[in-house]
Write a structure and sequence with these properties.
Number of domains: 1
Shape: globular
Largest sheet: 6 strands, parallel
Distance between the termini: 9 Å
CATH class: Alpha Beta
Number of strands: 10
Protein name: D-glutamate cyclase-like C-terminal domain-containing protein
CATH topology: inorganic pyrophosphatase (n-terminal core)
Radius of gyration: 17 Å
Strand order of the largest sheet: 5-4-1-6-7-8
InterPro entries: GLUCM_C
Domain D-glutamate cyclase-like C-terminal: 15-289
Organism: Geodermatophilus sabuli
Pfam families: GLUCM-like_C
Number of helices: 12
CATH superfamily: TON_0340
Order of helices and strands: HHHEEEHEHEHEEHHEHHHEEH
Strand content: 5-15%
């Protein structure tokens, strides 16, 4: 079992928009920990919060990006299938795209948080009565408290401070990220982000979590968690492996694009994630399905 979890973790370190090998090395073994936490949530019927959404304000038609909401919808469906109660949390600028993704698979209640102060946002999330909180491609503040894009553009004013909820007491926390500026990247030494990521010294998020999954894209990181859950909860293995079908990914991605989502690297609409089209990673999903077999 451990060998398969290690192989799953390694598989999704395939480069997306950038090389994430060093980020992955810094958090080796944490995918298995997070998957085990989520498996426990499923067995207990616990409510799991999934926080996602990055608004690409510089795109010709500003909108939420495709990386994050797509993988979150797949992960929410996986959690529902193992008995957990997923609640997906995002902010106003990313709500339409996130809702469209969730509607495809029919799992995950949506909670939309308006822009506001840290304490107000944390209180709203706290009222959801969550046991677990996992960020998926959700940007968080650097050491100066500023939220920065991969291009080192400050978007603090247009990003709800959902990171504040990760300091709520009693939560089991986790995250999925691919760039160094997402919630959870506090698990990676700042020096590693500075050395390995463009603008890393300025953009590195310092918010830590209980366990972080690094991946070439955050959607792939969610797929890795689904595969790991299939290993850990074999009674639901077939249902979980079905979520790793490229046709499922494409359907959710198409819904995101129809709702206005754009590629976070190119800024353009279309069926791609961080510049990578669906056919270019169908083999990765097939590999994850194979690794997920009991």
């Amino acid at each position: 079992m451990r060998d398969r979890l290690v192989a799953i973790e390694q598989a999704v370190l395939r480069p997306g928009a950038r090389d994430v090998t060093a980020l992955g090395a810094a958090v080796r073994g944490q995918l298995g920990r997070l998957a085990a936490d989520l498996a426990t949530a499923g067995a207990a019927g616990s409510r799991v919060g999934l926080v996602t959404g990055v608004h690409i304000a510089w795109a010709p038609a500003p909108a939420a990006e495709t990386d994050g909401p797509v993988g979150t919808a797949v992960l929410a469906a996986a959690l529902a299938r193992i008995g957990a109660d997923p609640v997906v949390v995002t902010d106003d600028p990313c709500a339409d795209v996130t809702r469209a993704c969730l509607d495809v698979l029919g799992a995950g209640r949506l909670a939309v948080v308006p822009l506001g102060a840290d304490d107000a946002v944390a209180a709203r999330v706290g009222a959801l009565d969550l046991s677990h909180l996992v960020a998926v491609e959700r940007l968080g503040p650097n050491a100066e408290g500023r939220v920065m894009t991969m291009r080192a553009v400050d978007i603090t004013a247009s990003t709800a401070p959902l990171h504040a909820a990760f300091a709520l007491p009693g939560l089991v926390t986790g995250a999925v990220g691919d760039g160094g500026n997402e919630i959870g990247m506090g698990n990676v030494p700042a020096a590693v982000v500075a050395a390995e990521v463009a603008h890393g010294e300025r953009i590195a998020c310092r918010v830590p979590v209980g366990a972080l999954v690094a991946a070439g894209t955050s959607n792939w990181g969610c797929s890795a968690l689904v595969a790991a859950l299939a290993v850990l909860v074999p009674g639901h293995g077939a249902a979980l492996r079905a979520l790793l079908d490229p046709a499922v990914d494409a359907a959710v991605l198409d819904a995101a694009t129809a709702a206005g989502a754009v590629d976070g690297v190119t800024g353009a609409p279309g069926a791609s994630v961080d510049g990578v089209p669906v056919p270019a990673y169908a083999d990765l999903l097939a590999e994850l399905r194979d690794l997920a077999r009991a």
